[in-house]
C-alpha cells in the first residue's frame, strides 16, 4: 500500500504507512503499548509475548502496518490471514491509536486503509472482536461495514469443580489440529479459538462407538515448580445432530478441566453466547462472566 494524503478536520496531513515487517520488534511493541494506553483492559505486551502471538495466531507483519505523521507514530493495525475451504479470512488482531491522535478521525483512516489492503488480498470475510462497552470502537468498525454477529464472554472459576463425567464415552488426547475440518461450531468460534491458531494448545476428543462426537481445545499454564497453575478453555463443542449434546459437553469439560479437585483458576476465552448449551452448563458450574466482547464480521466478496 502506498502512502496517501488524507484530510483531517478540514486540513491536510501527510500520512505515511509502513509495513510492520519493516520495523523492529521493539518499535512495534512500543507503538502497540502506546496505542493501548488507558484502554478498557490491560493489553500491554513485551517483545517475547508479541512474537509468540505472531507465531501462534497466524499474524502477518508483511500485511500489518503502522501509520506516521512525518516521523511521529499515529497508530497500528495488526492482521492475521488464513485460507480455509478455498476462502480467505482476515482477522484484525488489534487497532490502536496513540492518545494524542485519538478523536481526530485517524482511526477511520486506518480502518479504510485496512479495508483497501483486504481488497487487494482478495479477502472473502473480515473478522474482529471488540470490548462490548467500547462503543466508539464498535461504531468505527460498523462505519466501514462490519456487523455484530454475536456476544462473547470471558468466564472464570477459581477452585475445585463439582463435575462428574458422564459414562459411556471414550477419550483421545492430542492437538487441536487433529480435528481438522471436523469442527462442529459452524464458524462461530473466534479467530484465536480456531484449531489453526491454537499454537501450543491441547485437545481432548470425545468418542462414542469409535466416532468423534465432541471435543475441547484448551491451554495449560504451569508454575515454576512444574505444577498446573491455570487453564484456558477456547472451544468445547458437541455434534449438533446428537440428542446427548449436553452430556457430550459435560464429558469434554470433565476431561479438559482435569484434575477437577485442583483449586486453580480456569478461564473460558471468548465463549459465544449463542452457544447457549455450554454457557448454561458453565453457569451451573459456578463460572462467572468477567469480560464481555462483541464478535464482528464483514463480507468482502
UniProtKB/TrEMBL annotation:
Q: What one GO molecular function would you report for this record?
A: acyltransferase activity, transferring groups other than amino-acyl groups
Record Gene3D superfamilies: 3.40.630.30
One Pfam family for this entry, by name?
Answer: Acetyltransf_1
Which keywords does this Swiss-Prot/TrEMBL entry list? Acyltransferase, Transferase
Occurrences of domain N-acetyltransferase (ranges) = 15-176
On the tree of life, the source organism's domain of life is Bacteria
InterPro entries named in the record: Acyl_CoA_acyltransferase, GNAT_dom, YpeA/RimI_acetyltransf
Q: What is this protein called?
A: GNAT family N-acetyltransferase
Name the source organism: Cohnella terricola
Amino acid at each position: 500500500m502506498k502512502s496517501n494524503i488524507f484530510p483531517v478536520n478540514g486540513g491536510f496531513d501527510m500520512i505515511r504507512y509502513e509495513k510492520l515487517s519493516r520495523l523492529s520488534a521493539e518499535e512495534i511493541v512500543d507503538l502497540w503499548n502506546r496505542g493501548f494506553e488507558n484502554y478498557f483492559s490491560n493489553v500491554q505486551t513485551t517483545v517475547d509475548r508479541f512474537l509468540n502471538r505472531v507465531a501462534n495466531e497466524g499474524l502477518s507483519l508483511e500485511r500489518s502496518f503502522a501509520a506516521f505523521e512525518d516521523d511521529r507514530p499515529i497508530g497500528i493495525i495488526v492482521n492475521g490471514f488464513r485460507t480455509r475451504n478455498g476462502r480467505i479470512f482476515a482477522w484484525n488482531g488489534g487497532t490502536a491509536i496513540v492518545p494524542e491522535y485519538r478523536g481526530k478521525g485517524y482511526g477511520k483512516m486506518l480502518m479504510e486503509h485496512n479495508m483497501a489492503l483486504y481488497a487487494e488480498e482478495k479477502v472473502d470475510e473480515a473478522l474482529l472482536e471488540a470490548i462490548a462497552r467500547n462503543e466508539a470502537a464498535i461504531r468505527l468498525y460498523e462505519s466501514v461495514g462490519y456487523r455484530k454477529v454475536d456476544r462473547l464472554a470471558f468466564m472464570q472459576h477459581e477452585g475445585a469443580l463439582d463435575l462428574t463425567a458422564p459414562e459411556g464415552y471414550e477419550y483421545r488426547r492430542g492437538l487441536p489440529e487433529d480435528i481438522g475440518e471436523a469442527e462442529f461450531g459452524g464458524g462461530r468460534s473466534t479467530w484465536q479459538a480456531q484449531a489453526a491458531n491454537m499454537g501450543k494448545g491441547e485437545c481432548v476428543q470425545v468418542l462414542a462407538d469409535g466416532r468423534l462426537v465432541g471435543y475441547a481445545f484448551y491451554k495449560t499454564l504451569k508454575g515454576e515448580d512444574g505444577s498446573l497453575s491455570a487453564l484456558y478453555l477456547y472451544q468445547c463443542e458437541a455434534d449438533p445432530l446428537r440428542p446427548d449434546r449436553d452430556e457430550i459437553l459435560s464429558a469434554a469439560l470433565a476431561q479438559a478441566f482435569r484434575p477437577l479437585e485442583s483449586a486453580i483458576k480456569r478461564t473460558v476465552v471468548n465463549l459465544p453466547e449463542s452457544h447457549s448449551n455450554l454457557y448454561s452448563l458453565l453457569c451451573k458450574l459456578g463460572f462467572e462472566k468477567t469480560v464481555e466482547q462483541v464478535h464482528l464480521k464483514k463480507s468482502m466478496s
